[in-house]
Amino acid sequence: ACLCNRGAYPDFGAWLAEATRVGCVIQAVPDSILAQTSVHVQIDPDGAVNVLGTSEAVTSQPFVRAASFFPHTRGNWEVLQEVGLRMGHVLAGKGVVGFASVDIVFFENPNFDPMHVGDEDREPTPIVIGGDTPVDPRHLMFSDLRSPSPAMSSDSQDRWPMPISLPESRQADYDLAMQLKDLPPKPKTNSAVSMVLGVSPNVGASPSSHFACWVVDVDARLTDEAASLFPLQFTAQLRLDSSTGHFRLTTAAQAGDSVDAPEDDADARTRWALVSRIAAAPGLERMSHQALFQAAKMRGVSYDLFHNIGTIFTFLDVVHSLFSLLTVDRTPETCAKRLASGVSALMEGAAQSSSGKAGAKPKVSAPRELNPPESDNLLITDVQVALRAVQKRWVEKSRT
Fold first, then answer.
1. Percent share of the chain, pLDDT over 90
2. What is the rounded distance in angstroms from the CA atom of residue 224 to the CA atom of residue 323?
3. Which has the minimum average pLDDT: 8-22, 89-103, 250-264?
4. Could you report the per-residue pLDDT of 55-74, keeping only the tens digit for each?
5. What Cα–Cα distance (Å) separates residue 357 from each residue in 266, 319, 350, 392?
6. What is the rounded distance in angstroms from the CA atom of residue 347 to the CA atom of residue 329?
7. I need a surface site. Which of 11, 73, 141, 177 has the fewest CB within 10 A?
8. 3-state SS class at 199
9. How many CB atoms sit inside 10 A of residue 32's CB?
10. E strands, the chain, where?
11. Backbone angles phi, psi at 356, to 5 degrees
C-alpha cells in the first residue's frame, strides 16, 4: 500500500486501525488509463452551472500529480463539459454553492467491438406504412407537401373569406404539424457524448466507442487546479472558448505573433498552459529573491506580455524552499519544454548556492532535512521525472 498522507498515518498499521474504527471508501480504478482529467465548474446561488475549464494531470508516479495541463490534451471536451454540467446540477440540487471539480479518467473501452462502428453511422430504418408499428410523425410521407395553388389577391380574399374551421381529417394533420414544431431534436446516437456516456436507459460506453470514462472523484471545493485558472486567464489574457474547450486570447490582448494573421484564426490565438504543483528544491533557502530572479532570467525564465508566452512563478517561498511555475505557450509540447528548462534553471541555481558561489547567503542555522521520511512534499526531481515522461510520450507518438 502507498500512503498518501504520512503526516496523518505514519505507517500502514496506523491507517488500518483508523479504517477499522471509522470505515473507508474503496475507489475503483480501470485498467489501461489513457488520461486523468478534471472539469472545473462554478455553481451559482440560483442553481446555474458554469464550466470554468478543464485540466489534465501529469504524474511522476501513479496518482502522484506533479503538474497539470490547461486545457486537457487527451480526452473529449464535449464529454467533459456534459459530465461537468450534469454533476453541477446534481450538486446544486443538494444545496452546494461555489466551486467544484470532477475527476474523470479515460481508458480503453473493454467492450469495444469493431463490428458496431459502421452501425452507428447508418440511418435508422424507416417505419413501414401500415401494421401495428408505432408511427413517428417525423416519418410521415406527405408531411411537407403543399398544394401548388396560385397566390390569392386581396380582392379574392375579400370575396372568398377563409373558412373558420377545417374538416376533421385536415384539422388532425394541422394539429400534428403544430406538435412536430414543439418536439425536441432527437439526440444523435453517434455523437461523442452518447457513445461514451450512453443514452438512457443504456448507461456506459457504446461498443462502437474506442474509449470509455469513469467519474472517480468529486471535490466540492476550490481545488488547486481550479484556483490556477484565474491567474492564468488574468496573466495571459485568455478566455475559455465554450465550443472547443480551448483558451483563446481576448480581443484586447496584444498577440504580436498574430498581427498578420486574420482575426478569425483560432490557432494563432490559442494558448496552452502547464502549471507545476508546489515542490521543494533543496538549496533554494540559501538564495535571496534578487539572486534567484537574476539566475532565472539569465536562463530564459521570463514572460513576454506582448506575445503572451513564457514562464512565471505562481508560488515562491525561499525560506521553506518551495516553488511553483506556470508556463504559457502555443502548443502543449512547447509548454513542457519551457517548464522543463525553468525547473532545470532553478535546480542549477540552487546547486550553485549550495556550493557557495555567487548569490549564496551565509548559513545562520543548522542544516535541516527538507523532505523527512514522514513528509509527502513533492520534490523538484519528481517534477522533472513527470516532464520527461510527457516528452517521451510525444516522441514515441511522433515516431508511430
1. 40
2. 14
3. 250-264
4. 999 998 887 899 999 999 99
5. 47, 19, 10, 34
6. 22
7. 141
8. strand
9. 9
10. 33-43, 49-61, 64-70, 98-108, 198-199, 202-203, 211-219, 238-240, 247-249, 270-276, 279-280, 303-304, 309-317, 322-329, 378-379
11. 90, 25
Comparing CA positions, the residue from 341, 328, 337 lying closest to residue 246 is: 328
Kindly tell me if the per-residue pLDDT of 336 is higher than 80.
yes
Nearest alpha carbon to residue 309 among 226, 238, 204, 391: 238
C-alpha cell at 336: 513542457
Reduce the DSSP state of residue 242 to 3 states and report it: coil
Grid cell 401495428 is found at: 132
Average pLDDT over residues 189-213: 81
Q: Tell me how far apart the alpha carbons of residues 285 and 366 are, in angstroms, rounded to a whole number.
A: 12
Rounded to 5 degrees, what are φ and ψ at 100? Answer: -155, 150
Distance CA 226, CA 98 (A): 12
Which residue reads 514572460 in cell numbers?
A: 303
- pLDDT(6) > 80: no
Q: Which of 108, 121, 42 is nearest to 75 (CA)?
A: 108
pTM of the full structure: 0.74
How confident is the model at residue 287, as a pLDDT?
85
What is the overall mean pLDDT for the chain?
79
C-alpha torsion sign, points 164, 170, 171, 177: negative
**CA-CA distance, 36 to 182, in Å (whole number)?**
40
Check: CB of residue 42 under 8 Å from CB of residue 91.
no
Computed on alpha carbons and rounded to an integer, the radius of gyration of the chain in Å comes to 29
Distance CA 209, CA 110 (A): 10
Is residue 146's pLDDT more than 70?
no
Provide mean pLDDT across the span 242-248.
Answer: 93
For 386-398, how does the pLDDT look when each residue is reduced to its tens digit (9 = 90+)? 999 998 888 887 7
- What grid cell was written down for 129? 406504412
CA distance 394 to 138: 48
DSSP 383-400: HHHHHHHHHHHHHHHHH-
Coil, strand or helix at 295: helix
Query: Residue 30 has what pLDDT?
Result: 84
Q: What are phi and psi of 317, to 5 degrees?
A: -140, 95
Identify the CA nearest to 346 among candidates 396, 285, 388: 285
68 closest CA partner among 36, 91, 111 = 36
Give the lowest-confidence range in 93-107, 236-250, 295-309, 344-358.
344-358
Residues facing residue 309 across a β-bridge: 304
